Structure formats: structure tokens, C-alpha cells
Structures
1.
Amino acid sequence: MDTEKILSNEIRSQVLIDALPYIQKYNDKIVVIKYGGNAMTNEELKDDVMSDIVLLNLVGIKTVLVHGGGPEINDMLKRVGIESKFINGLRYTDEATVDIVRMVLAGKVNKELVSHLTKHGGKALGLCGIDGQMMLCHKLEGEVDLGFVGEIDRVDTKPILDALAGGYVPVISTVACDEQGQTYNINADTAAARIAAELKAENLILMTDIVGLLRDKDDTSTLIPEVQVSEVPFMKRQGIISGGMIPKIDCCVEAVRRGVKKTCIIDGRVPHSILIELFTSEGIGTQFV
């Protein structure tokens, strides 16, 4: 038993030693995490994510959590008899739906995440884009009318930076308003990318239900670990980037072009995937640089 304890302690020590250079690299830097997918609905994975974020905050990494809440919105719409409708991957948001979106995201989901972080010993502050007009937007125009879906015009980072300066993890729900105060639903990936850019974040991490960008979408062994943003148009023409991956990767590219050092798409179904991405040389998923 004593030998087992010694080996166990040696392993723990080595893990900490290996993580030290990465902790130093990210110390006092901002990391934006977009939280969604299975990691948000599976309670065990949720606990892993919350404990990871608290750990990052405790070792001096300024962590911003941006969240969606699609399943919860779908559930509430079903309860009140409104059918969920999606067009090109974006939720059609009529007047009744935008009220539900605001209630669920800024109320239920946001405060539950704040509570979870507090339960794990962290300090968290719930925010949404409407607070202090933190995210100003206008109606997203396109070939198809999506209703009250917004496109971001401006992000005021002061409320976020004030929360970080106070030692809090800002937890941001992605509803915003226009100059007249009309509420709009904002795609969470898009919002996270813009927030990361305005904060000049060191890293933007998008948590998803896939392992990353695959050269062959049916073969997980074909994971592409790193992509230069200049390669993205060619990969789209080849069909490597297609379907639902297009908007996610466009967000990654936009964030990098706006000054984020790197962005990553990681598999949120893997326990402690955030720590693996930040504190190991190989990382996890696909990074865009």
C-alpha cells in the first residue's frame, strides 16, 4: 500500500509539474469558453466543466463563460405550445419565442450556471447582453427572415472586465438589444467569438459534441489538429468543412482575424476537456491559428 501511495503521489506531482508552463503562459490572460452541447445537459460533465473553470480562475486565468441553452429553450417552447423552427442552423425567433429565449437564457440557464460555479467554490456573476447595453445589435438581414435574430454591432467590455477585476467569472447569456431596447436572440458561437475578440483573449474555446474538424467526417482518426485560417476557403471547396461546421469555423476564423491568439473546437463530451486543451502540449480537438 505504501508503494502504491508513493507512486500515486509521484504521478500527481508530475501532472502538476507538466501543467506549470501552461499555467504560467495563461496567467493573467483571458480565456473565453463557449459552453453548450452535451456537456451542458449531462450533469456529470457539467460538474467537470464547472470545477475546471473554478480551477482556471484560482490559478490566475481570467475565464469568461458564454453559454447558449437550446435544449432548455426547446423544452419551454414545447410546454407553452410553440413549435421550434430552425433555418440554416439558426432558430427562427418570432415575438413570442424571443420572450421565451430571454426568460430561459438570461433567467433560468444563466442563474443555474452561476449557482453551479458557486457550489464548486468559485465566484461567478451572471450577465446578459442587455445589461448596460453590453451587446448592441440590429436585426440580422438575409435571404430568409429569421425574426428577432440579431447581428452584433458593438460589445462594451467594461462590465466583463469589471467582473474579472473583482475575481468573478462572468457568465454571459447571448440575448442582446438594439438602440430602441428591442430584444434579439444572438447565436452563442457568434457572440463568444465577438466577445473574445473585443477582450483580446488569448484563447477562445468552443465546446461541441464532436471531436473536432475531420478530414473524413465518418472517421474520427482523421482529426485535423491545427488549421491555418488561410486554409479554410480551400477546405470548404473540398467539402472538408461543410454543413453545421461552417458557421462554427467561420466564428473561429473571425475571432482570429480580430486578434484572438487562437481558437479551438473541442469535444465537450470528454471529461475535463478544457484542462486537456489548455494544460497539455497536444491539446484536444482542432485549433485555428
Note: The chain has one domain: 27-288.
2.
Amino acid sequence: MPKLTIDFFHDVVCCWCFNISSRMRNLAAEFDLDVRHHTFVLQASRAEMATRWGTPKDARETILGHWAVCRQVSDRPELVDIDAMRAVQFDYPHGMTAALGCKSAERIGGQAAHWDMFDCLQRAHLTQARNIADPATVLQVARELGFEAAAFAEIFEDPATAQAVEADRQHARALQVHSIPTLVVRETGARLVNGPLEDLAAQLRTAFRLVA
């Protein structure tokens, strides 16, 4: 069977990306997929959050409404803690700081490290209600994952890491990616439709037939 490369565009603050990431891990093992990770920051600052969502209170309530819908179709709904995020004192976080964390991990350890960092930051956000817009939180998650603290912090603060996040944004623009999660089969250009594991598997089987 030929190998497929899947370009996975995602944002740590996206609950739908949480659902799809675990499914793609299962499918990557079943189909021997090469999953390539690309950051796609929906809002990159508190100012962009305000422009998109309004007041911090409005932002939290609207986004947590999306969480509730997402949790209903999640394979792991117990990991989406809406009450915990509603109770915290900080504003709902933007995704830029976490994106820098994912790219830092990638620069140190490649695609596997990016994916591990992404999943750990999503759990910090969705399950533990930690402020992933705070660099200290991202650096702490990196330490929890096993990265050497000083080395990770150096890469995290390196302007080249922010440039790599911007390069992902430009790559998304070139592919006309406008929403997340987006999964692009590189060999065919097809986009997988987000859905249950069995639906994604069926789409992958179709893609394999096309490239066989």
C-alpha cells in the first residue's frame, strides 16, 4: 500500500482539533500515514480576540458554547471540562503562544514532537483549564513533556520560530485553507471531511485507491 501524506492545519485552542487529533493518531497507526503539522492561529492576540468575539465575557461564553457542541461528538468527552474553563479568572486565551510552543517542539524534535506538544497543550487548555496564552504555561508544559527547559526557552524566544508560524500561515493561504481543522491529502489534493473515525477511515481508503 502506498503511503499518504496528510497536511494537518490546527490551532491549540480549537476544540474540534482536539477531536480530530486523537482520531488521526489512530488512523496514522492503522494506515501508516505521514502526518505533517501546520499551525493555524485563529486569533493571535487579545486585541484580535476582542475584534472577533467582543468582550472577554462574551468571548468565553460563545466559545464555550462551541465546546459544548464539540463535546457531544467527542470520543473523549470527559476530557473537555467546560465548567473549569468557565471558572478561571484569566481571559479566554488566544492561540499564538501555544503555536510558538508547537513550532519550538518541532524545531527540536520534528513532526512527532510537534504533535506531542500540540496534544499536551490541548489537554492543558481543554482539560486542565490552564492559560496557554501565558508563555510560562507553555514552557511548563514543555518541561512536563520532557524538553530541557533552557534549550526549549531559547528556541521559543528565537524570532525564527515566529517566522515558522508565519510560514505555516502563508502555506495555508496558498492552499486556500480558511478554517480548522483542515486535513489535506497531499498526493491528491483532497480534503478529508471532519467526522467519526470510521468516516475518516473510509475517506482514506478512497484516497489510497486513487494513488495506487
Note: DSSP finds nine helices and four strands in the chain.
3.
Amino acid sequence: MADFPPAHPRMGRVQRSVTMQATVSALHVYPVKSAHGIERARVPLTPRGLEWDRQWMIVNPRGMFLTQRTHPQLARLVPDVRDDALVLEFPGLPPLVVPLSFRGTPANVRVWDDACVGLDEGADAAGWVSRAIGEELRLVRAPPEMRRNANPKFAGLTPAPLGFPDGYPVLVCNEASLEDLNSRLPQPIPMDRFRPNVVLRGLPAWAEDRIDTLTIGPVTLKLVKPCTRCTIPSIDQDTGAPSTDPAPALKQFRFSRELLGVMFGENAVIVSGTGMSLETGAVAQASFEV
């Protein structure tokens, strides 16, 4: 298992199947799309992914979502989900408390090419996020009845429901792959630059390219598509400032002609285990196609 071929997208060809054991070393949730993440020791799994992950987003007056690609200061917006409220903090502003009840007005919003209907969280929330980011904006939430699914070309014909992530409910990353990448960079970068949900320890570098399914207790994830990376991994996730950009190094050995981008991490859909929880330290059984 230590000698994986150079990483490339899944080509649909299986020579043999093997299983390897790994450990869940970290779990991350991003309640507000493109804002700061939260590390959790234990997270329930919902049909849309990790609980509270990308269930809110900030949009402009046209309903288009904001991202760190154009607004890196979003990294400084720190969310927390408490028993009855989403709490947002930003330097220089008092915290914003948004009740968890679904009380907003329906609003047409967009995530890339997907047109959705979100719930507008009201004038107070809009004023707060506008002051934080410095332009007229609104805060919206994904309602329970929202119909948005991962791309069936990769996710398969069984619908994989989403909140507001870019395209898939779960992102899986591998510590050893980051170590290998860091050995090629002028300065190492932390894993949070890649904004994973599930981080694995104990696999060879780039082994995630060949994982078919990942079973963590009662939860099974199917890894369906390499994650092509934008400019966000070059942004310090604590300050929002530009930092070491891994893209030039990734382009040397992780560029996909099929996907037209550099790859780090694997997008996954949920096969089973909704309603159960993922925990750090849990054993993960990785089934590989090699």
C-alpha cells in the first residue's frame, strides 16, 4: 500500500481492492460558507453532511454568494453554533446572535450555477454582515425543504442533498498528503487552508485518490471526485491575509487535464450513517481501488 502511483482523477478502472486502517485526526465544520471554521471532537452527521456545515451564507444584493476568493476578510468572521443560536464574531463589532428557528423570508440565491431559495435572516443580520465586510450584504440560511444536490455525474444517481457547500456534502483530506506538499513549499501551510471536514492520519501520501469507500463506525462515505483548488489555500485562515500559495507546487504534480485544476482532498457523499456521529480518534476503514 505504500507505493501508490502518482495522483490523478478516478478513471473507473479497478485492478484489485484492498483495505487499510486510518484514524480520524480532526473534524471541521463551517457554519457560514467561506467564513472561519470550527474544529469539533464529535459531530453528528445529517443527510446534508456534518451538522451545521455550510447552512448559512452571505450574499450580495443579487443573491450571489460571497467567498474568500474575492473577500478574504471572511476568514476573520468566526461562527459558533450554540443551543439556540448562531453567534458570529468579527473584530471591532459586537457579536451577532441569530436564533436557530427557521424564521426568515424566502429569498432567491445562487451557489455557482445552482439557483436556490434561502431564508433571509433579517435586517439586523444584514446590517451586521454589511458592516463586517464593508458593503451591502445579506445573511441567508438553507431551509429544510431546499432542493440542491451534488452533481450526479460524480455523485451517482442517488441524490446527495446539500446546503451551501460548493458542490459536495463532505470533504476528506489526508495528513500525509499535506506533509508531502509542505516538503515542496518554501514555507509549510496548515491543513485549515484546504477547509476539510474529515482529516485522516495513517495513510500514505495521496492514498485518498484511490479510496472508494471510507467506513467510520456506522458511517460510510463514498469518495467520488478529487477537489480542485482555487486561491483560498493561499489565504491565512486566521487573519485573511495573503500567505504561501501552494498552487504552483501542486501544478507540478497534481494538475488534472480532465478537471482543469490542481487537486487536494476528495469530495465525498454519504452512503449510510445519517443520524450517527463522527468522532476524532475513531478508526476509519478505507477500501481502496488500486
Note: The chain has four helices and 19 strands.
4.
Amino acid sequence: MSLPNTHFGPERLGAMLSEPRRIFFAGIGGVSMCSLAHISHLRGHAVSGYDRTASPLTRQLEELGIPVWYDADASHVRDAELLVYTVAIPASLPEYAEAVRRGIPVVSRADYLGYVMTGYRKRIGVSGTHGKSTTTAMLEQIFRLAGLDPTVSCGAPLKDAGGRCDRIGGEEHFIFEACEYMDSFLDFYPTDVIVLNIELDHLDYFRGIEQIEASFGAFMARTGSGGRVFLNLGDDNVMRAAQGYPGTAVTFGVENDRADYKADEITFTHGMASFTLFRHGEALCRIHLRVPGAHNICDALAASAAAVENGVDPRAVAEALAGFEGASRRMDRTGVTPEGAAVYDDYAHHPTEIHSTIQAAAGMDFKRVVLVFQPHTYSRTKALFGDFAAALADPALTEVILTDIYPARETDTRGMSSELLADAVRVRGGRCRALHSLPEIADALRAAYGKDDMILVMGAGDVNALCPLLL
């Protein structure tokens, strides 16, 4: 089980960090943790950290002069005055255990992020089961090109920020991705909240959809009566969660005449959508997207509504989105195999995301589409087993290859395996097999797929290491 979040709050943390401190980040390579380490470094704190593997994100921190260790050892916190941890680490991690033993304050990532954001006047939180990173990245591009100089913390590397997961700007706007896992977002202090969608997920923590809706409702309420929420009118779970919200509610919807902001007159070119943005029935602008898939319409609509309500001219919104190339690992074209197959990398790991991404791929004019999918956690695979099997049996796919399940924070297999999932996909009419090694998968793909084919590499774990093997 993951470590719990702390709840020190900004006043207590502010008192602890009123002067430069030596701060150790346990799990510093995480997409949010690396942003917090960067911000802390810029604020004059002496930052260091541990992660189990090197990555482009940890190398970026090292280039800033931040020491990062890849072998866990209690001596790393010898001089630390504060330890910030991600709930994904085990309590047995030597640095964490040593900090607790010595009485060094330990603070969860969410608690620390909540403290950091209170230094900004307008705080826009992007929440939802799907689409958070893309919508956050869209807002970053819109606000930046509109000259508003936002500070941003995203759950995926931003292509226009040199592959960083953050952008350090002014102190007026803080745009952040708000994750619901372990109720982490209940330590945040938003003034605006976007709720894209609500579905069953993270069932190693949540008991069911009612608890998830209650958590989202509590997150919205953190804006207070003077705050504002942007709600997907087409999602019944979202609208139930928002009941009783004390602030201002702004709705958005795709082809929904009841919504305050509507995307309509939708067309597609090579899988990429264009639509007209309406506010209260008035056409504001025509938006052309460069990222494929119908699901990006909703993300772009939510970002547009939030931007316009924060004073951005609709023409500036359209111009920014016309140049938006997506967040990293979201239908990200990584190259072409020597045999001529296009390789795409995607982070989807929930059945709804898988379905949306497959539909996007199907509209991109490739002759064949093969999917390599890495299931993420045994608990998610078990809880949503039938939905995974149905999504992976999509007739738009020529073939599905499953890797071993990525355990992340889990050790118990819960009776799950990729072989069981492959059997279930075949029962539903899909062509599916499970292979255990990335080199084996790369050899099989390069032997079977070439010119005019797409190889779609998908999952939230380490399956993207397949891409360089293919290229």
C-alpha cells in the first residue's frame, strides 16, 4: 500500500521554509516531483534526491547542479532538513526510514505542492480521470502565447519547454495538473477547477464511483464560494459530483446546446479535428487541432473555456491551439522503423483512454495498426478486466501484443497475468498474444510490419523503452 499524504498545510510549511533549507526529494524523477525540485532550487534551497532509475527528467535536474542518487542509502539524508516524498515509494526506502528515525520532517508531494501554489494569485487545477496532461499542456501554450507568463506543473513533459514537466513564469497564474489518487488533490488550493470526466480508476484506493465523485466534489469545494469550476456537461458523474458547489459553475460540452461553451461544426482531416467554439450560442472562433482524435476536442474545449473566462482573447486561443503538438507520450510520433512503419508512443492505461486512442489511430490513414500494450498494475487490470478486453478487441487493430503487467507500487499479482488478458481478448474476436521481453517484441514487429503501417506503443509504465529498440 502507498504511503499516506501528510497535511501540514501552507502556513506550517511556510514557517519551516522561511529561509533556505536542505531538501531531499525521495522519488525525484517523478513528473511532479522533478517540478517541485526545480522550483525549490530556484527559490534558493539546497536540493538533492533519489530515484531508482536515471531518466531525461533526472538528467535535467543534474544539469542544474542538483545531486541525484540512483542507489538508495540512508547516508543521502545525513544533512537533510526536510524530506519530500511521493506516495509511490515504500516506507522501507532507506532515505525515508532514516528521516523518520532521526525526526527529520517528512512531507508528501501533494502537501508540498499545495504550499508552493499558494504563492500565486490565480491557481487553475486540471482534474479528471483522463486528459489532464493534454489539457494542462494546452493551457500552458495558450497562456504563454497570450503573454500571461504562467507557471505550470504538468503530468507529462512539455514539448515547448525543452522536455521539462514544468514552466517557471510569473506569480500571477499557476496552472497545475490535479491527480485524484490517494485524494492528493485535497491538499491543493485552486481558485479555478476544470473537471474533464470522472470514471472508475485507482481501485486500490477508492472503493467505488460514489467515493470518487465525493472526492472530486471536495476538490471543487476547495475553491470556496468565490471560486469557479469548469464542468463537462456531458459527463453525468461530473455533474453529480458538482452538486452543492458554492461558487460559479461554467459548463462545456461537445455539440451540447445546453453548455455555456460548446464545440460544434466539427470536421476531421487525417484524424485531426476542427471545430467552432461557441459561448452562449455566439461563435467566438474556429479552432484547428494538430493532435489526432475526437477525445482532444473535449480537452481543447475545456482549455478554451478556462482561458476565455480568464481574459484571453478567443483569437489568441485559436492561434495557440493551431500550433499545439501535444504533450509527450500522447500519440507522440517517435520515428520510423528501418522497415518503414511509423512508431507512436502513448500513455493510455485505462480502457476509455485505450478506446479513444485506438479510434484516433484508426482515423490516421494507416494500412495496418498494431498495438503493443503494457497493463498497469494488477489491481487496475483485475478491477477493469472486462473493459480492457473489450477495448483491446477493437476491430480497427490488426494485432495486439501484451507485455507483462507493470506492477508499479504493487507486489501481489491478484491472480492476474497478460496471458489471461490475451485469452479474454481472443474470446471477443481480437487477435492478441502475450510476449515477455521488449527485444522479442521488437523483433516480431520489425519482421511483420513496414511501410504504411503504425506501431502504437501504449502504457503508463516503462513500455516506451521499446521505441528505441524499434528505431
Note: Residues 295-309 form the longest helix (15 residues).
